[in-house]
Amino acid sequence: MQENSLKTIFGENVFNDAVMRERLPKQTYNALRKTIDEGLPLDPKVADVVANAMKDWAIEKGATHFTHWFQPLTGITAEKHESFISPTPDGKVITEFSGKELIKGEPDASSFPSGGLRATFEARGYTAWDCTSPAFVKDNVLYIPTAFCSYTGEALDLKTPLLRSMEALSKQALRVLRLFGNTTSKKVITTVGPEQEYFLIDKKLYEKRKDLILTGRTLFGSKSPKGQEMEDHYFGTIRERVSTFMKELNEELWKLGISAKTEHNEVAPAQHELAPIFNTTNIATDHNQLTMDTMKKVALRNDLVCLLHEKPFAGVNGSGKHNNWSMSTDDGLNLLDPGTTPHENAQFLVFLCSVIKAIDEYADLLRVSCATPGNDHRLGANEAPPAIISIFLGEQLTDILEQISESGSATNSKQCGELKIGVTTLPTLHKDSTDRNRTSPFAFTGNKFEFRMVGSSSSIATANYILNTIVAEVLSEVADRLENANNFNEEVQKILKEIVTNHKRIIFNGNGYSEEWVKEAEKRGLPNISSTVDAIPALLKDKNVKVMEKHGVLNKVELESRYEIMLENYAKTINIEALTTLDIAKRQLLPAVIKFIKEVADSVNAAKSTGLDVKIDAQSDLLAEVSSLAAEFKKRIDNLENAVNSASNIENDSFAIAKYYRDEVFTKMGELREIGDKLETLVDAEIWPLPTYADMLFYV
Predict the structure, then answer these.
(1) Looking at residue 191, what DSSP letter applies?
(2) CA dist., res. 360 & res. 389, Å (int)
(3) What is the distance in angstroms between the CA of the first residue and the CA of the last residue of the chain?
(4) Closest by Cα among 71, 159, 126 to 554
(5) How far is CA 36 from CA 158, 182, 660, in A?
(6) Among 177, 465, 573, 595, which is most exposed with the fewest C-beta within 10 angstroms?
(7) Residues 6+ apart with CB under 8 A from 230
(8) How far is it, in rounded angstroms, from Cα 502 to Cα 476?
(9) pLDDT tens-digit series, residues 548-569
C-alpha cells in the first residue's frame, strides 16, 4: 500500500474530529468539543444538528441503518439496527435521523445478564450516546457507541463504570497536580494500548471440532510430537496465508481509525499478536472490541478461524491481552514518565507510589477483573503471569524507593549508560532504565504499567475501571493530606516513605514462575487466588464496595449483580464444556475406539485362523491395552454424566453451584480427557474422528 493510500484510508469510516470540523457549523462543533473535552452537558439543539450531519455523512458511506452499539455484561457487544427511512403520504420515503434518536435508544433489557438488577418481565433499558468515542460506519450501518443502563438507572454494561472511573481518576489526579503548581491541565486521561494475542487455524479443521465450535477450546487432544519447544515460531517469518490475513485485517482496522501498529508470530505454533498505538481508555476499549470482531470476520474470509479463547490448546501457550496503562494530562504530560533523574521528580514519585499502594491494597479486586473460566487455564502457566499480583519496577526505581524507605528521601538515580555490543560496525545502544520482566503481572515498562493478567477474550473495560478507581482512591488520600499540610515538601516525603515502607511487599523483580516466589509471596501476605470461583467474592468485600461507591463507579447493588453474573457465567461455561465433552466422548470417540478394537480383534482372529504359527503378540497386546482403556473411558463417561446430573440437586446458591462445577464437574472432565488423549495415541489415525493438535497447529 502506498503512503498516500494509507493516509487516505485511515479513519475514512469514522465520524472523527476532522469530519466534524468540516461538516458541522462552527458554533455546533465548538459546543460538541466542549462536551467531549470538558464533560459539559450537551444541548439537544446541538444534538439535532450533529445527528443530521452524521446521517448525511453515513449515507454517503453507504449506510442504510444506524445502531446504538453497546457492551452489555455478556462481555461482547450488542446492536439493534434501525433504518434511516420514514414513509411519506405519497407512498415514498425520506431519510431522517433526529438528535433524540442519536442521544437515546431503547433496546430490550430483559434478556441481557443483570444479576438480579432487572426481573425478566422488566424489559426497558436505555442506551445513551457516548460522544467521547467517535461513531463509525461498518457493513453499511452507522455505529453509535453508547452506554447501557436500566430503567432505574443502574449500569447494565461495561462502558458506564469505565466512564465513571475515568472521571473519578481525573478529578483526584487534578487535585494532586494543582498542589504541585500545575494550573494549565484541565483533565487527566488514562490511556491504554492493549496487545491482542490470538490463534489462527484452518476453517475446515475447525468445523470438525465440536469442542472448538461450542466452547472455544479443545476438550480432547494429545500433545503434538512437535510443539513450541524449539522456539522457532516466535517472531519467525510470517506464513503467506497469515500475512494475507494480517494485511486485510490492518486495512479494515485502519479504515475504522484503529491504529494497528505491531504484528508478529507469538510463541506457540499458529499464535500471533496485534498491538495498537495508545489511546484514551474509553476509545481503546471500543477499538479492542472492534478488533476482536474484525479478526473473526477477516479470518473467515480467508478460510481461517480466529480463536480468542485464553487456552484453546492444552499444553500450548495460551493467549492474553497485555493492558498497557498510563496517566496523561490533556496537554500532553505523561504522569508516569520518570524523566532522566526520577529521584528528583517528586510529582512522578507521588503518582508512582499511589499506584503501588493501590495495587497492594486492592490486589483482590484487581484479580477479579481478569477472572474468567478461560483465564484459569492460562494464569500461572509459562506464557502468563502467576495469579499472585506483584509489581515489577526494575533496578533503578527499586533503588530509589529503597533510599526513600531507609532515609526518607532519595539522592541519586542509577544510570544504565550505554550497551557496547563488541562489533565496530554496530552502533552503541543506550540502555533503558530497566529490563523487562515477562513473569510479572503488573510491570513498569518505562512510562507505563503493563497489566499482563487480562485474558485474550475479555473486554479490557473491567480491568481498567477497577484500576482507575483504586488509583483514584489513593490519589484522593494523598490530596487530602497535602491540602492540609503545613509544609508541602515535608509532607510529600513523609507520604512517600510511608507508602514504600507499608507496601514494598508488593514489589518483586524476580522470577514469578518459581516455587520460591510462591513461598515468599505467602510470607509477605500476598493473596494467591488461582481460581475464578475464589476470586469473585472480593467484589462484595466491605473495603471494595466502599471504594467503588465512594467514587461513584459502581454501587453495592451493581456490584452484587456482577457477583451473581460472574458466578452464573462460570457454572454455565463449565456445564456447556461438560455436556460437549460427553457428546464428543459418547458419539465420536467411543464408537471410534470400538471400531478400532473390532479391527484389531479381526486381525488377531484372522491370524489365528490360518493355523500357522504366526506371532500375534503385538496385536494381542494392543487389543488388551485399548480394550482396557475403553472400559475405563466408559466408566469415566458415566462419572462425568452423574456429576453433571447431580448439579441440579445443589441448593439455590450461586457460589455453591460454581464451586461444585469447579471441584466436581471440571475435575471429572479432566479425568475423562486423560483417557481420551491416551486413546488418541493408540487408535488408527484414519479412524480417529478429531483433527489432532499437529493438524491444527502446523497446517495453516
Answers:
(1) E
(2) 8
(3) 25
(4) 159
(5) 19, 22, 47
(6) 595
(7) none
(8) 18
(9) 999 999 999 999 999 999 999 9
Phi and psi torsions of 187, nearest 5°: -155, 145
3-state secondary structure of 393: coil
| pLDDT for 612 | 65
Euclidean distance between CA atoms 538 and 363, whole angstroms = 10
Among 359, 365, 408, which Cα is nearest to 161's? Answer: 365
Question: 276 in helix, strand or coil?
Answer: strand
Considering just the CA atoms, what is the radius of gyration of the chain in Å? 28
Q: One-letter amino acid identity for 73?
A: L
* Angle in degrees, CA 661, 664, 668, rounded to 5: 110
Which cell numbers in the block locate residue 639?
A: 462419572
In sequence order, what are the residues at sequence separation of 6 or more whose Cβ sits closer than 8 angstroms to the Cβ of residue 66? 55, 58, 81, 82, 84, 97, 101, 141, 142, 143, 144
Q: Write down the pTM of the prediction.
A: 0.93
18 to each of 10, 21, 27, 112, how far by Cα in Å? 12, 5, 15, 36
> Distance between CA 567 and CA 564 in Å, rounded?
5
Dihedral in degrees, nearest 10, Cα atoms 618, 620, 626, 632: -140
How far apart are the C-alpha atoms of 250 and 560, rounded to whole Å?
A: 40
Helices (H), 10-114: 17-23, 26-38, 44-60, 99-103
Dihedrals φ, ψ of 85, to 5°?
-80, 145
Task: Tell me how many degrees the CA angle 93-96-102 measures, rounded to the nearest 5.
Answer: 150
CA-wise closest residue to 404 among 493, 276, 273: 493
289 Cβ contact partners less than 8 Å away, ≥ 6 residues apart: 71, 76, 77, 459
Name the strand (E) or helix (H) holding 467.
helix 461-483
Backbone region of residue 277 per phi and psi (left: phi > 0; alpha: psi in -120 to 50; beta: other values):
beta
Cell 513450541: give the residue.
228
Please name every residue paired with 143 in a beta bridge, in sequence order, or none if there are none.
Answer: 67, 136
Residue 312 per-residue DSSP state: S
Closest CA to 84 of 137, 127, 131, 134: 137
Cell of 155: 449500569
What's the pLDDT tens digit per position in 575-618? Answer: 999 999 999 999 999 999 999 999 999 988 888 887 766 677 88
Q: Are 639 and 672 in contact (CB under 8 A)?
A: yes
565 in Cβ contact with 545 (< 8 Å): no
Asked whether the beta carbons of 150 and 117 are under 8 A apart, the reply is: yes
Separation of alpha carbons 403 and 349, rounded Å: 12
Cβ proximity of 692 and 221 under 8 Å: yes
Q: Please write the tens of the pLDDT for every residue from 56-105.
A: 999 999 999 999 999 988 888 999 999 998 887 877 777 788 889 898 88
Task: Decide: helix, strand or coil at residue 142.
Answer: strand
